[in-house]
């Protein structure tokens, strides 16, 4: 519900989430080049139209 007040469309909200994940991984790599690497991925949810599934290792 909060996203409907902050973003003009669901695609803009999704783009923001992807950008945040990218920024997090980039910053982590700059601050700790020898540290563990993170991974984020996303895909359309198969059974729910208009839904998106996101996964991350939590290391970003």
Give a verbal description of the structure.
The protein is α+β, with helices and mostly antiparallel strands. It contains two helices and two strands; from the N terminus they run ααββ. Strands 1-2 form a two-stranded antiparallel sheet. The longest helix is centred in the middle third of the chain and has 22 residues. The two termini are 26 Å apart. The relative contact order is 0.17.
**How far is it from the N-terminal to the C-terminal residue, by CA?**
26 Å
Radius of gyration: 14 Å
Average residue pLDDT: 76
Q: What is the ordering of alpha helices and beta strands?
A: HHEE
Low-pLDDT segments: none
Strand numbers in spatial order across the main sheet: 1-2
Shape designation: flat
Helix content: 40-55%
| Number of H/I helices | 2
Notable traits:
60 residues; alpha+beta; 45% helix; single chain
List the helices and strands and how they pair.
Layout: H1 2-6, H2 10-31, E1 40-44, E2 52-56
Antiparallel strand pairs: 1-2
In a nutshell, what does this entry contain?
By secondary structure, the chain is an alpha+beta fold.
């Amino acid at each position: 519900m909060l996203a409907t007040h902050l973003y003009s469309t669901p695609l803009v909200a999704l783009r923001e989430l992807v950008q945040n994940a990218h920024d997090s991984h980039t910053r982590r790599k700059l601050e700790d080049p020898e540290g563990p690497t993170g991974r984020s991925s996303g895909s359309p949810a198969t059974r729910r139209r208009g839904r998106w599934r996101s996964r991350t290792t939590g290391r970003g």
